[in-house]
Every structure is written in structure tokens, then in C-alpha cells.
Design brief:
about 110 residues, alpha+beta, three-stranded antiparallel sheet, 4 helices, 5 strands
Length: about 110
């Protein structure tokens, strides 16, 4: 079953207050109020429309068989926070670093 924005938002609400870690290992929490996600490390909120854009970007990359190797691949504001949340919620798989190294010829 493909993830919808509505289902993702329900999951975000269910997991608010949990500790997540950015790609750089910085801990953060978030809360959901209305159509906004508030991260404790940021002054601005991440709106539901931004989450929808990130979800769409992730789904397009995955449909093309491309790995989502970091937050920048989501291409939106708040991606550094959405990326680890999306991983934990199963929206995107954790990267298989060995496969990525082979593909990019990294020793």
C-alpha cells in the first residue's frame, strides 16, 4: 500500500515527542499542531504541504529505483528532520551503504 499524506500525517502525530537523530547525529523532537510540525531545533515550522512535497519526492525517487542517500534528496525545507523521521516510519528505506559504495566505486 502506497503511503498517502493523510496516513503519513497520522503517523507523524503518533510519533511526536520521540527522539530522532539528524544525519549528523543531532537529537531532536517534534510536535504536531494543526497542519504544522514544530521541531525543537528550529524556529520555523514544517507545514503539511512541505511534508507532502517531501513524500512525493521520495516516492518518485523510489519509483525510479534511485536510493535516497541523504536529506538533500528530498529537496525541501526541513529535509534534515524529515529524512530520519521518514526512515523510522518506513517511508524510505535506510540506505544500503555497501551497495552505494559499489555503484559509485567508493573503496
Amino acid at each position: 500500500m502506497e503511503m498517502t499524506v493523510e496516513r503519513l500525517w497520522q503517523l507523524l502525530e503518533a510519533h511526536q515527542g520521540e527522539t530522532f537523530y539528524t544525519a549528523k547525529g543531532l537529537p531532536f523532537h517534534y510536535t504536531v499542531r494543526g497542519g504544522e510540525l514544530f521541531v525543537d531545533r528550529r524556529a520555523k515550522s514544517i507545514t503539511v504541504s512541505t511534508v507532502a512535497s517531501a513524500l512525493q519526492a521520495a516516492q518518485q525517487l523510489l519509483a525510479q529505483g534511485l536510493p535516497i542517500t541523504g536529506p538533500k534528496k528530498l529537496g525541501c525545507y526541513g529535509a534534515s528532520y524529515l529524512y530520519p523521521v521518514f526512515q523510522r516510519l518506513g517511508v524510505i528505506p535506510a540506505p544500503d551503504w555497501e551497495q552505494i559504495k559499489l555503484k559509485e566505486n567508493i573503496p
